[in-house]
Amino acid sequence: MKTINPPSRAQKAAVLALALLSHPASAAVSTLVGAVCNLYFQVVKIAAPLAFVVFAYGGVQWVYSADDPGGRKKARGIMITAIVGLLIVLIAKDLVTALTNETPCT
Fold it and tell me: Which of 9, 51, 61, 96 would disulfide-bridge 86, Cβ 3.0–4.6 Å?
């Protein structure tokens, strides 16, 4: 006889999130989407200046390691990471819009 393991917390959370997002007209989804939008705007206020500082740090490292190819490669990685991180944060709003079929974050 095959035993069935109970669902994990992550599986339960995923099922709950999908259930909430599958009914975009419900009040719970509107509250959830509003909370995500508020969180998004707060994160953008922090992420944009932080990405600029990290990018500038990578630029300074690039300049000071002009003779060191390993240092320049590390600095380039820092700058790319800053740009990718900022893009992920900025795309998050569009992801919420696509999942809920609404434009909640204006």
Answer: 51
